[in-house]
Amino acid sequence: MIPHFSDHAANERTYLAWVRTAISVMAFGFLLERFDIFLLFTSRAATRVTENLHTRASQWLGLGLLLVGALMIAGATLRYYRNHKAIEAEASSTYGDTWTARAMAALLVILAIFLTLYVARQVAALS
């Protein structure tokens, strides 16, 4: 019998959920980084000339999301091992959120706001 098995299994499930989320963020970042191809295709297919399209921002935002996804995996790994040690320790310890998790969440909110404004501006330029 493995001591504290249910705690370790919950810790591992949480870690895997973080990794899945990070992979999704990175995949969205890759898609967004290639968003410029879609914009160039639609601007060429448009009946009128669109000069207000700025595709460089989608590349930087996509790269930013790739970086955030990599940082999420690194943070989740550190958190997994910290919780693993806390589960194995005989002494009780406090469980709290870290500043890195809050910083990544804030960064994702800022990126989401920027993405919303960016896409709205590109749609307005195409119409």
Automatic annotation (TrEMBL):
The chain crosses the membrane at residues 15-39, 60-81, 101-120. The keyword Ribonucleoprotein does not apply. Coiled coil: none annotated. Its main location: membrane. Signal peptide: none annotated. GO terms for cellular component: plasma membrane. Keywords: Cell membrane, Membrane, Transmembrane, Transmembrane helix. Residues 7-85 form the DUF202 domain. Pfam families: DUF202. It is found in: Cell membrane. It is a multi-pass membrane protein. InterPro entries: DUF202, IM_YidH-like. It comes from the Bacteria. The keyword Membrane applies. This is DUF202 domain-containing protein. It comes from Dyella jiangningensis. The lineage of its organism: Bacteria, Pseudomonadati, Pseudomonadota, Gammaproteobacteria, Lysobacterales.
